[in-house]
Design brief:
Elements (H helix, E strand, L loop, with lengths): L2 H13 L2 H7 L4 H15 L4 E4 L2 E4 L1 H24 L7 E6 H18 L5 E6 L1 H9 L5 E6 L5 E3 L2 E16 L5 H4 L4 E4 L6 H11 L7 E4 L2 H9 L5 E4 L1 H5 L6 E5 L6 E8 L7 H10 L2
Parallel strand pairs: 3-4, 3-5, 8-9
Antiparallel strand pairs: 1-2, 5-12, 6-7, 7-10, 7-11, 7-12
C-alpha cells in the first residue's frame, strides 16, 4: 500500500465523495477511482458500496481508516523530525475554554514560523480532543488535565503547560460569594475530568453541600443563563477577560484547594521529536 493511495482513500472517507476528493486533491475522478481500486485489489476486499448514488464505506473501510490515519500521521512525524524546515502542516485541537485565549497566540506565532502551512483547528471538550489525537484525526491538542506533571499514558504523551485559577461567575448585582453559592450551577461538559468534578470537589473541600449541577456543551449557553440570573458557574479565569464579563457579571475568586485546572498539550508518542510539538510547547507554556 503506497501512501498516496492511502491519502486518497482517507480523503474519500472524510468527504464521502469521489468528486469532492478529486477536487481537493486537484486531480480527476478516474484517478481517485483507480487509487481506490488499487487498494481494494491489494487488500482483496471491497472498500465502498454504491446505493442510490451514495458512497457507503464497508466495515473493512472503517477498519482501514484507523490504520491510514496512523500511517499518514507517522509520515508527517518523520518529515518533521528529519526536516524541521518543512511546511509544518498541522491539525490542532483546542479545548473550548482556552480557544479564545490561545488561538490568537497560535495563529500569530505558528504562521510566522510556517507561512505556507495548511492549518486546521478544531475545538471541543477534552475527551473529544483526546480521542481525535488517539485516532490520528488531530496531530496535537490542548486539553484540561487533572495531572500536575508531564507523563506518558493512555497511548498519548502529555506535557503540562500551565495552571489556571477557577472563578465563580454569577449574575450581576451579587456582592458576596455566599449569595452566589445559593444559586444552581451550570458547567461546561468536559468528559472524564469535567468541570462538574472540579466544582463538586471544591464544594467538598470547603465542607459545603453542592447545589444542583446542569451540564451543557456550549459556553455561550452558560453565559446567557448567568446573565439572565438563572444560575452561576465555575469556569477558568481567562473566560472573564476573553468574553468581557467583568462589567456584565459578578466574579468571585474561589478560596482554598481544588480551585485551579491544569492545561496540557497531548500528542501521540511518535511525535516526540517533531519540531511542531516543540514550537507548540514554546508558545503555550507560561
Amino acid at each position: 500500500m503506497d501512501l498516496q493511495s492511502l491519502r486518497t482513500f482517507k480523503m474519500v472517507m472524510d468527504l464521502g465523495s469521489v468528486t469532492a476528493a478529486a477536487e481537493l486533491l486537484n486531480t480527476v475522478q478516474p484517478n481517485v477511482t483507480a487509487r481506490i481500486r488499487k487498494l481494494e485489489g491489494e487488500l482483496g476486499v471491497s472498500l465502498f458500496l454504491r446505493a442510490h448514488r451514495r458512497l457507503i464505506p464497508t466495515h473493512e473501510a472503517v477498519t482501514l481508516l484507523d490504520y491510514a490515519n496512523a500511517m499518514l500521521s507517522l509520515e508527517q512525524a518523520a518529515k518533521g523530525a528529519v526536516n524541521p524546515r518543512d511546511q509544518g502542516h498541522i491539525r490542532l485541537g483546542l479545548v473550548d475554554t482556552q480557544a479564545a485565549h490561545l488561538l490568537p497566540i497560535f495563529m500569530t506565532r505558528y504562521r510566522k514560523q510556517h507561512p505556507d502551512a495548511e492549518i486546521s483547528v478544531d475545538t471541543g471538550v477534552s475527551g473529544f480532543l483526546n480521542r481525535g489525537v488517539e485516532e490520528c484525526r488531530l496531530d496535537a491538542a490542548v486539553v484540561v488535565d487533572r495531572r500536575k506533571r508531564s507523563t506518558d499514558q493512555d497511548n498519548l504523551t502529555t506535557h503540562m503547560l500551565f495552571s489556571e485559577p477557577l472563578v465563580y461567575i454569577a449574575p450581576k448585582g451579587l456582592s458576596r460569594l455566599e449569595q452566589a453559592l445559593e444559586l444552581p450551577i451550570m458547567v461546561l461538559i468536559q468528559e472524564g475530568c469535567g468541570y462538574r468534578n472540579f466544582a463538586i470537589d471544591w464544594y467538598r473541600a470547603q465542607k459545603l453541600i453542592a447545589p444542583k449541577v446542569t451540564e451543557i456543551s456550549t459556553l455561550d449557553g452558560i453565559l446567557a443563563c448567568i446573565k439572565a440570573g438563572l444560575c452561576a458557574s465555575v469556569l477558568p479565569k481567562s473566560i472573564v477577560q476573553n468574553f468581557d464579563l467583568e462589567n456584565r457579571t459578578a466574579i468571585f475568586a474561589l478560596p482554598g484547594e481544588n480551585a485551579e485546572i491544569n492545561i496540557a498539550l497531548v500528542h501521540r508518542p511518535e511525535f516526540k521529536n517533531d519540531h511542531r510539538i516543540k514550537l507548540l510547547l514554546e508558545m503555550f507554556r507560561k
